[in-house]
Design goal:
This protein has about 110 residues and is α+β, with helices and mostly antiparallel strands. It contains 4 helices and 3 strands, in the order αβααββα. The model has no long low-confidence stretch (mean pLDDT about 95).
């Protein structure tokens, strides 16, 4: 295994939990899947549809998101929004993220 393969594997592991935090943060306001992909991409967080939609379904089954269909436009769209539990989980994750990144920054600066 070469360096690039090893780094790629580690980055994938780091990214998995980060994506959940990003999705919950963006879904404080209702949006549909394709728009969420675009909004995350605009912030430098690329996510594929085949990764996002199963994640949205899982977060919804855990009670962190709710979804509703909007059929008023030319194309029906499923909108997602964080529940109150989702907001609480996001708040806890943000606190842990901030602590971990501060600790990691201290460690990596030494």
């Amino acid at each position: 295994m070469n360096k690039d393969e090893i780094v790629s594997g580690f980055l994938l592991e780091l990214r998995r939990g980060m994506v959940i935090l990003c999705v919950l943060a963006k879904l404080q306001e209702s949006t549909y899947g394709y728009n969420l992909i675009a909004e995350l991409a605009d912030t430098g967080i690329a996510i594929e549809a085949n990764t996002l939609y199963p994640l949205l379904r899982r977060l919804e089954s855990q009670g962190l998101l709710i979804s509703t269909w909007n059929t008023e436009g030319a194309k029906p769209r499923k909108y997602y929004h964080a529940t109150s539990l989702g907001v609480e989980v996001l708040s806890a994750l943000k606190a842990h993220w901030q602590t971990m990144t501060a600790n990691m920054n201290n460690l990596l600066e030494d």
